[in-house]
């Protein structure tokens, strides 16, 4: 029998809930086996969750009397999950079968809830019944999108349960119609075969895509065709690349393993050369940058701030650079970006600035200045747009001799803020002020208008710094040479054919349509060229580094489907990152090469 409080929760009658609670309704009285807070979670009655939690903060921890599930286990939507987590729900609470809320969301095939839990720090390798990890469970229920999501967030693709079964083994013996897709999802990122002495199924041999054919319309088919047959051996480098190796990286409480008194990278200590990291712009595709950096950390077994002396970024890359500087680990930044899209990309373009600025202030602090942390040296690009042509501005966390000069009284334009006066959140807002997506920050626009790939700009600045600013550096920081440059892109989208770029004086009605299409295509070409981060700009950086004898590597994963700057769909983003992980696995030798030089 349902109590009036249960019924009010079932129909999302918040006023009724409030009235009942004020008049003594017992919220600790179960209906069958669920309490009112469980009913509110089950029926997506988010308006009812708020007064119940306000009345008793501990109710988010109460367990139902049958399954032992908390309200978080009962939630059905991302909004309910976020509401309960904000109220203090335990993200790792286990039910009677030792299953966390993440296990339950996987069982119910709720991708949005899965991503929401992972982006709030849920343990991607939490053990349930029979020591099944979330990845084991996702394979069992046959949900390829959830499998990819868990891989992207670092799920251990070679984990074994009490029956000594790996996710690949479970996929091989599965009868799910998505069996082949799941096998591709696992094997293309490096899962290892079963031991042939203990397993007689096809999972005991190296993977070949042709053994598990995909229908033409099935996700992953185009990517698998591009790879052909590839063999992954048990003793492959996959062992160190396998997702879930976060334990190899030691983080401090601040998250990034920083030793603020150190002031130099591992490479600098050993080779007396600086190391530089360059991060392209690209909006939410900054998740690709994070995915590569996560893998680099796993191979190097060191936090990024111990690997690089200089970090330069544009737009999303600049925000990431500032995040790394201020103690945010790469796993945290991945979680942050998945939350960012839901909190900031609200409404229609151009998006309101307030959520963006509030988000940045929460992460960096409202009063933190750029020079509060001086190592590694960070540059975030911006475009000063109160003039034509616009000027490149570099937000810095360190000073140079030029900062001490008095501004020219006869200058046409007012001076820009010096690093010691520049707020971090405003620097992040400035480098991320992408036209048509966000309003300008005063006269500052996204640096991608000038330097979407900041590699050459960083190298040029470093040369100038060595020449002019180095004499004022500390004794241990007298390096005058860059030894390594690692450049990362935010993905190469598929090429799109253009049929008409002609803009002419119309002589007939049919010409008007041609002009419209031609003008649109021409604008797209100009924008693409202005914000280019591939092609000639990459070739120039590579040639320049070769000329000055600098080790240079670039990674820019191929994306097989277009992903917009402000993409919010979890499935699209998860698939993008899975494709990125496949790309990384195939080029793991590059990461190994970079990691060896850095450490």
Notes on the protein architecture:
It catalyses: a 1,2-diacyl-sn-glycero-3-phosphocholine + H2O = a 1-acyl-sn-glycero-3-phosphocholine + a fatty acid + H(+). GO terms for molecular function: calcium-independent phospholipase A2 activity; long-chain fatty acyl-CoA hydrolase activity. By secondary structure, the chain is an alpha/beta fold. Helix content is 42%, strand content 7%. It folds into three domains: 4-189, Serine Threonine Protein Phosphatase 5, Tetratricopeptide repeat; 274-402 and 416-492 and 534-598, Cytosolic phospholipase A2 catalytic domain; 496-533, no CATH class. Strands 1, 2, 3, 4, 5, 6 and 7 form a seven-stranded mixed sheet that branches. Strand 1 (274-279), helix 16 (286-300) and strand 2 form a beta-alpha-beta unit. The termini are far apart. Mean pLDDT is 85; it is low at 228-248 and 250-257.
Characteristic key phrases:
3 domains; Serine Threonine Protein Phosphatase 5, Tetratricopeptide repeat; alpha/beta; 7-stranded mixed beta sheet; 599 residues; Cytosolic phospholipase A2 catalytic domain; single chain
